[in-house]
Amino acid sequence: MNTQILKTLLLFLFTALAEIIGCWLPYLWLRQGKSAWLLLPAAASLALFAYLLTLHPAASGRIYAAYGGVYIVTALFWLRVADGVLPKTSDWLGAALCLCGAAVIAWGGRA
């Protein structure tokens, strides 16, 4: 695998984790009655998410679109690990379709 592609995929993964954690912590506070102190690491995680988005080398709109596919797959893993819910086969099929679209957006038709 091309080194640049691997670096981009890892950056997408870290970006997705920062976004998911930044949204999950307020969810714990609002929906599960956890401590409001969770808002501090949530804010830090969302700030990290925004910073990581600036590290992507291509046009922002294209990167956001391609990142969406990786976010979906990461969210399904999060569903299993953090929430204890087993994703359905249709979830994985949909995620695979999104990853195919993300790959076309990210690496297809470069001018």
UniProtKB/TrEMBL annotation:
It is a multi-pass membrane protein. It is found in: Cell membrane. Coiled coil: none annotated. PANTHER family: UPF0060 MEMBRANE PROTEIN YNFA. Keywords: Cell membrane, Membrane, Transmembrane, Transmembrane helix. This is Uncharacterized protein. It comes from Kingella denitrificans ATCC 33394. It comes from the Bacteria. The chain crosses the membrane at residues 9-30, 36-56, 63-80, 92-109. The lineage of its organism: Bacteria, Pseudomonadati, Pseudomonadota, Betaproteobacteria, Neisseriales. GO terms for cellular component: plasma membrane. Belongs to the UPF0060 family. The keyword Cell inner membrane does not apply. Its main location: membrane. Pfam families: UPF0060 (PF02694). InterPro entries: EmrE-like, UPF0060.
